[in-house]
Structures are given as structure tokens and as C-alpha cells.
Design goal:
alpha+beta; eight-stranded mixed sheet; 3 helices; 8 strands; globular; binds zinc ion
């Protein structure tokens, strides 16, 4: 895996969280995007090589809604950039990690993504992401 691509933070309200994080970081949200596969609205702030991703649930059955219900707002996942997500998923499966998706799915910000089960990673939800070249 390469660098930390982004850190995902679950929030109840995207608009007020955007302005909070813009103030905190002295940076601007460059993109807001709806992700159908997770039923979330996301926003991104670039921080050097990495990003902060804010996530707000768009329906009660969204993974973000369930997360907030259980744990409250806070850090939801850490995403690592990979060159070849299929290869990386196979590598992790071979090592005994449980990958949550059979196939990579379309994530926000033009990425193919996949999650690793937090029970295998000391409670941290790990996302793999690969940029989609077009
Ligand atoms: Zn993410």
C-alpha cells in the first residue's frame, strides 16, 4: 500500500461540519459528492498529500447512520491508496483478512474502493482505494 489517501469522519450534518473543518484546518472543501453505494453525502478537504473526507448519512440504513447510532460522530475509517486494488484484495485474502466486498465498488472522488473488516484490524475500518484512470 502507498500513502494514507484520506481519513473518513462520520458527521451528523455536512454543512456545519464543512465550515467547522474549514475553520480548523484553514483549508477549503473542494468537492461534495453523493455516493450511492453507501447512501452518503461526502465532502473533501485536501491536506498536503492526504485528504479529510466528511461523511453524512442520506438514509437510516446507510453504514454511516448505523455507525453514528452506535458510536456517535468521529473517525470512521482510514483509507490507503493502492496501485492495483484487485491484487491488494487478493493479497489480503491470502493473509486471512476479511475483505468486505467481493468486488471493488465505486467510491467518492473517482475511486475504486473496498473495506477490510475491523475485527481483523484491531477495530479500525480500513479502506483500500485506487484512482480510476480515464
Ligand atoms: Zn473513504
Amino acid at each position: 500500500m502507498n500513502k494514507i489517501e484520506h481519513i473518513g469522519i462520520a458527521v451528523r450534518d455536512l454543512a456545519s461540519s464543512n465550515s467547522l473543518y474549514e475553520k480548523l484546518l484553514g483549508a477549503t472543501v473542494y468537492k461534495e459528492e453523493y455516493v450511492e453505494s453507501e447512501s452518503v453525502m461526502t465532502s473533501f478537504i485536501q491536506m498536503g498529500e492526504s485528504k479529510i473526507e466528511l461523511l453524512q448519512a442520506c438514509s437510516p440504513d446507510s453504514p454511516i447512520a448505523k455507525f453514528i447510532e452506535k458510536k456517535g460522530e468521529g473517525i470512521h475509517h482510514i483509507a490507503f491508496e493502492v496501485k492495483d486494488i484487485h491484487m491488494e484484495m487478493a493479497r489480503l485474502r491470502n493473509l486471512g483478512f476479511h475483505v468486505l466486498n467481493e468486488q471493488p465498488k465505486k467510491g467518492a472522488d473517482n475511486k475504486l474502493i473496498c473495506f477490510v473488516h475491523p475485527k481483523d484490524t484491531r477495530g479500525v475500518l480500513i479502506e483500500l482505494c485506487q484512482s480510476i484512470q480515464d
